[in-house]
Write a structure and sequence with these properties.
The chain is α+β, with helices and mostly antiparallel strands. 30% of the residues lie in helices and 35% in strands.
């Protein structure tokens, strides 16, 4: 796997949303509903557009620099300009996992949030059952702050979530 770049998410990238939304690992470790509604990609796009208008959400497609394939999403589901904080996240296609794509994408997204949003605090919410995502956070300089117990509900099961943070002064 070569280098990747982030490209502002557009309707041309929506296919990756539909693909990722039904991936068992994405369903297991994220807040995407299970079963995934058939209109999920369209609803997700509408929420992104509204969030962009209100300047509280942003998303980028993760693109393979070599062949232009969409490898995933690097997003900012929550921006708080007043507090200068942002929640970041990433979803990587199964074919691109285990090759450093998530680490590259999160590093670029982190840099973007610190320089463009002038964020003073970045957060990642990671399932406590997701060791791969934990490794990405560590590689990108995030620090584990603790566990938010029983934070998310899927079906009738509640899940614990780790909260990781990064400040501009962290190395």
């Amino acid at each position: 796997m070569g280098d990747v770049r982030l490209e502002t998410f557009s309707p041309a990238h929506l296919g990756v949303i539909a693909e990722l939304a039904v991936d068992p690992e994405v369903q297991r470790f994220t807040r995407i509903p299970v079963p995934t509604p058939t209109d999920f990609a369209d609803v997700w796009w509408s929420r992104l557009e509204e969030g962009r208008r209100n300047q509280v959400r942003e998303s980028f497609a993760v693109i393979d620099d070599g062949d232009g394939r969409v490898l995933g999403i690097a997003g900012v589901p929550k921006i708080d300009h007043e507090a200068r904080t942002a929640e970041l996240g990433y979803l990587i296609a199964p074919s691109a996992r285990g090759r450093g794509v998530a680490t590259q994408a999160l590093a670029m997204l982190t840099s973007w949030a610190l320089t463009e949003l002038l964020a003073l605090r970045l957060e990642l919410l990671i399932s406590d059952q997701n060791p791969a995502s934990r490794k990405v956070a560590i590689r990108c300089g995030y620090r584990l702050e603790g566990v938010l117990r029983s934070l998310h509900l899927k079906g009738d099961i509640r899940y614990d979530t780790e909260i990781w943070s990064r400040l501009p002064t962290d190395s």
